[in-house]
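[C-ALPHA CELLS]
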Amino acid sequence: MKEITAIIRRGKLPETKKVLEELGYPSLTIQSVEGRGKQKGVVCAEAEIDPEMPESFCTAVKLTPTPPEYALEHTLPKAVLYVPKKMLTIVVPDDAVTEVVLAIIKVNQTGKHGDGKIFVSPIEAAVRVRTGEKDEEAIL
C-alpha cells in the first residue's frame, strides 16, 4: 500500500475528485493548506495561480516585503507570502500508484508555476476502525 499526497490548485479539486472516483478511488482526505515553492510565494499573476484567490490576497502581493538580508541580520521577521492550495491524501494498493498519480497529473498540469506536487509514501498497515478489516481490505 502507498499513500499519495497531492497538493493542487483549489480550482482543480472538483475535477480531481471526479477522475479519482472514475478510477474507483472515491475515498480520500482533503485539507485546505497554504504553502510556497521555488518562487518563495512571489506571484506575477495571482489569477493564474488560483482563480478563487480572495481579493485581499492581491493587495498583499503589492506589499513590499522586508529584504531577506536585513531580516537575517536583525530580529525582524521576514515577510513571507503563502499561496492557498488543497491537499489530497489517498491510500491505494501498490499496483494502482502509477495510474492514480498519472490521473492527478493529467487533471492538474497547466504548465505554469503553482501546479502542485505529488508525494508517494509507503504505508505499513491500515485498519478500518468500524470492522477491524486490515490493510488492503481496509482501504478499498
The chain has a mean pLDDT of 82.
